[in-house]
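Q: For a teaching handout, I want to show students what a protein-ligand complex looks like in token form. Below are the inputs, and the small molecule is adenosine-5-diphosphoribose. Please produce the holo structure.
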Amino acid sequence: MSDELSQAIESASRLIVESTYVIALVGAGLSAESGIPTFRGPGGLWTRIGEPSMNGYQEFLADPSGWWKQQQDQQADPDRSHFRGAIEKAEPNAGHYALAELENLGILKRTITQNVDNLHYVAGSMQVTEIHGNRTKLRCIGCEARWHRHEFELGESPPECPECGSLVKSDTVMFGEPIPRSVLNRCFDEVDLSDCIIVVGTSATVYPAASFPQTVKERGGLMIEFNSNETPLSSIADVVLRCPTGESLPSVVKRIKEVKGL
Ligand code: APR
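A: Here is the structure, written as tokens, with adenosine-5-diphosphoribose included.
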């Protein structure tokens, strides 16, 4: 391990221990070591098939059944089926377990994740807010009620909400779709409470999630970046851990336990 990295692990561990309300903002980079391609950068899903249009949600609202059928037709698309195959067989990696342990230690108060892969829960995290939804769930676009996918008999068109009669769709947030109000409010509340945000494996290019670290910094809080590559946030980070999160996160948790004598 380079001196620079061990120094960064030491600084990050001490700043986290000295903070009172630590939250995490997580992106696809955390799940890369679980075999799920990221979206941008080399080999990213959007790099390969192009970013979806920002009108996706409007197209869904304009013709829900047509959109639903098109989704079923696209299932065969090799890039999408590769991505879906990877996400279906993925297991949490050491990075997911390190975040779950930091939560268990009472240090990490909330994980705001952009990932829809459900791996935080599989790793044992509980204080999780999924800002872009969860692929194993369905959600009503009216009353925001949620169900596990297997609770619904899915047919030729999107089901109707048994509570309010609105359309039910995948819980994952489409491009152009507003983040569900209850989810966004929870994120803003957590950011307001936080004096330290750890930013894990995100290119910090998609808003509103990418605004959270800046807000914590503007309010005098700390920001620690865990990312193999430079991002637009690197210049405002108090500490940067420039290596795979499957290595950096467990190392920081191990050092925190030593510092706290746990
Ligand atoms: N360890 C640490 N960082 C990594 C690793 C790794 N093993 N692998 C990749 N990264 C970093 C990359 O350097 C990059 O900064 O993870 C980031 C992944 O960026 P994106 O692919 O843009 O993913 P993310 O930031 O989560 O995208 C945000 O965009 O497409 C939408 O809804 C989608 O939630 C997603 C959102």
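A: Two things your students might notice: The CA atoms of residues 198 and 224 lie 5 Å apart. The chain has a mean pLDDT of 94.
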